[in-house]
Write a structure and sequence with these properties.
Elements: H1 2-24, E1 53-59, H2 64-79, E2 83-89, H3 94-99, E3 107-112, E4 117-122, H4 127-137
Parallel strand pairs: 1-2
Antiparallel strand pairs: 1-3, 3-4
Length: 143
């Protein structure tokens, strides 16, 4: 009988972990998870820095959600003037992945015009999440 309680407890714990993980997938953090003030050199990874912000996507070759994220970020760039996007192959930039503590792909960083990382999301964000995060972290975008 004890084994059934242990099994039920393990299943309940797994369900809670799965629900929390699903809820956080693709959502931008309220605060940057990397220490305040890191500067991301967009040009060093072959990108062009946006006048207002740059959306940096860390991807890998066999990542299906990365394709969706690429499309979403492209739509945001088309909607918001002064915002660019750059895709970084995580496997080719392992030092940068370690430095920024990128744990999964896709991971999207929002980098302001000065190069500061203002927020990040792990998983595929929706267009609405990206737009809302840009608006909340970069107030000049509301002008």
């Amino acid at each position: 009988m004890f084994e059934y309680y242990v099994l039920a407890g393990a299943l309940a714990l797994a369900l809670v972990v799965a629900l929390v993980s699903q809820r956080r997938n693709g959502r931008f953090s309220r605060k940057p998870t990397v220490a305040q003030g890191p500067v991301f050199d967009v040009e060093a990874v072959g990108g062009i820095r946006g006048e207002r912000a740059t959306l940096v996507q860390f991807s890998s070759a066999f990542c299906a959600p990365c394709r969706t994220t690429r499309v979403v970020l492209g739509q945001v760039v088309d909607l918001v003037p002064g915002v660019t996007t750059v895709e970084v192959d995580a496997e080719s930039h392992l030092d940068l992945v370690r430095e920024l503590q990128i744990l999964r792909t896709p991971t999207v960083l929002i980098v302001d015009a000065s190069g500061n990382i203002v927020t990040r999301a792990s998983g595929a964000p929706t267009k609405e999440n990206v737009l809302a995060s840009l608006a909340s972290h970069l107030p000049d975008l509301n002008k």
